[in-house]
Write a structure and sequence with these properties.
Blueprint (H helix, E strand, L loop, with lengths): L1 H5 L6 H13 L3 H9 L9 H4 L2 H18 L12 H15 L4 H28 L7
Helix pairs in contact: 2-7, 5-6
């Protein structure tokens, strides 16, 4: 993040996203651990989804198994999926990735974090662009 801030302003959203992607590729294991520590284990789901006790139980159980296996929270980029699909994507993703070796999972986690960062940056910039921002 410091690297992105130090090189501001960026001429457009594409330049900002390219710089962010490059910065993420340079992440060390300690950087990855810090990024994971800042991620919530509970993604936002439509309220109707989590009213179902079976869905809540399945989600908690899947997260617990994943965290026990890999030692960190499960992360997945859900952008641009519709919120009604998020629960299925999370549960499917956790179950599919439980069979990964730790090194393989670390690479997938880094890729998911790149997607999450990209989506968050784009969302923030697009919100700011409505207010007349032309450099990022």
């Amino acid at each position: 993040m410091r690297r992105l801030i130090e090189h501001r302003p960026y001429p457009d959203l594409g330049a900002l996203l390219a710089a962010a992607e490059e910065a993420v590729y340079d992440m060390r294991p300690a950087d990855l651990a810090e990024a994971l520590a800042n991620e919530s284990a509970s993604p936002k789901f439509p309220p109707s989804t989590l009213r179902c006790p079976v869905a809540r139980t399945a989600l908690r159980a899947a997260h617990a198994v994943y965290e026990s296996r890999f030692g960190h929270t499960f992360v997945i980029c859900l952008d641009p999926a519709h919120p009604d699909e998020h629960l299925d994507q999370v549960l499917t993703g956790i179950h599919a990735r439980l069979g990964n070796e730790p090194e393989e999972e670390r690479a997938i986690v880094a890729e998911e974090l790149r997607g999450i960062a990209r989506a968050r940056l784009a969302h923030l910039v697009r919100g700011g662009a409505d207010k007349g921002a032309d450099a990022f």
